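Hypothesis: this fold can be encoded by more than one sequence.
Test: take the structure tokens below, design a sequence, compare later.
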């Protein structure tokens, strides 16, 4: 049975229309679910008995099960169990501008980036829309907070689960729903070009981040399998088109891997590659994992790299390191849990 948490407002309106009932009921149900946060159809007080029975017959309303939570000062990491016993994770980060939740979009990932735990575990299946929505609800309930920002940077490649991701964004962005502003939502992709093309026609002003991680094909192909299918020059071309079409600035993520992509030459090459593009670069200190041989760049090297980009007029920031003690990088908590 479909979970009610995976149904968009428009779909719920269609559901009621098909039963010859008023569309306004969809708004009422959304408010019960996302404003008042009831967890059973019986608690939806202004909904008629018959409608409640219909909803119960047609939809489930189960929460996700929390397996463990690991906490550090500025981060809490949640491991969830899904109804088929698969495990996914979400990471809550406290920023001065609000609370941001990094959610998973798939169980595992097929993109096969060599430095990534999620890739090591391979894709088992896509998450359905409700499994993404429920990560937010569970964390908000448990922490007794509201989340202001969502990043799709947990386990999985969002653009390999495109339709469910778009429904997810619709649900959380609906004013009658969780009501997270589109500019507070960021989708991160390893660079699936046809989906970036599709995404530039999406009407919502959602942020796009690209996992670039290298300034040329040689290095990028040596760490990211996807670069063998979609070359860096093609990726840059589609990003330029995206910016022209949407007028939005793009973020390039760049993981700093010791002796792989962190040299001064790489910084110069990256500056040339991105010259004139309305973007900013986020340098990410690599989170080392016990299963993978890559090492993180030293602080000094990251600063040198940063300086070269700055001098070349590239907007650049160094990502604050969150929760390395709680294995906060993509897929790490799950990977370590499997071993315990
Ligand atoms: N699949 C998408 C989104 C999930 S990964 C993507 O690749 O963009 C989110 C980000 O975490 C990516 O930039 C990814 O390269 C990065 N990442 C993966 N493993 C990491 C690690 N061990 N340390 C730091 N960042 C990591
Ligand atoms: Fe998948 Fe992103 Fe990890 Fe690459 S970095 S394997 S695309 S989750």
């Amino acid at each position: 049975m479909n979970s009610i948490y995976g149904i968009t407002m428009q779909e719920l309106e269609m559901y009621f229309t098909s039963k010859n009932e008023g569309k306004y009921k969809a708004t009422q149900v959304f408010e019960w679910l996302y404003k008042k946060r009831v967890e059973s159809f019986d608690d939806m007080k202004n909904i008629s008995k018959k409608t409640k029975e219909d909803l119960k017959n047609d939809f489930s309303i189960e929460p996700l099960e929390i397996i463990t939570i690991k906490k550090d000062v500025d981060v809490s990491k949640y491991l969830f169990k899904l109804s088929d016993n698969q495990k996914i994770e979400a990471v809550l980060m406290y920023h001065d501008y609000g609370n941001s939740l990094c959610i998973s979009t798939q169980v595992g990932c097929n993109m096969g980036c060599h430095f990534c735990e999620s890739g090591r575990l391979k894709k088992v299946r896509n998450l359905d829309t409700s499994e993404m929505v429920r990560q937010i609800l569970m964390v908000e309930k448990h922490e007794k907070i509201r989340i202001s920002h969502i990043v799709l940077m947990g386990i999985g490649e969002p653009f390999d689960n495109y339709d469910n991701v778009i429904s997810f964004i619709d649900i959380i962005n609906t004013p009658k729903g969780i009501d997270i502003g589109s500019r507070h939502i960021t989708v991160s992709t390893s660079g699936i070009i046809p989906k970036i093309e599709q995404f530039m026609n999406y009407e919502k002003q959602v942020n796009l981040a690209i996992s670039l991680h290298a300034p040329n094909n040689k290095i990028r192909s040596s760490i990211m399998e996807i670069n063998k299918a979609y070359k860096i020059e093609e990726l840059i071309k589609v990003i330029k088109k995206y910016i022209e079409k949407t007028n939005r600035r793009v973020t390039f993520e760049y993981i700093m891997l010791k002796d792989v992509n962190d040299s001064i030459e790489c910084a110069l090459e990256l500056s040339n590659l991105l010259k004139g593009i309305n973007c900013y670069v986020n340098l990410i200190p690599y989170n080392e994992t016990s299963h993978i041989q890559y090492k993180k760049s030293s602080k000094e090297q990251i600063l040198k790299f940063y300086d070269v980009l700055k001098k070349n007029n590239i907007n650049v920031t160094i990502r604050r390191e969150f929760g390395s003690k709680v294995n906060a990088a993509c897929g790490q908590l799950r990977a370590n849990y499997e071993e315990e």
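Residues 129-143 form the longest helix (15 residues). The chain has two domains: 2-60, 65-339.
Hypothesis status: open.
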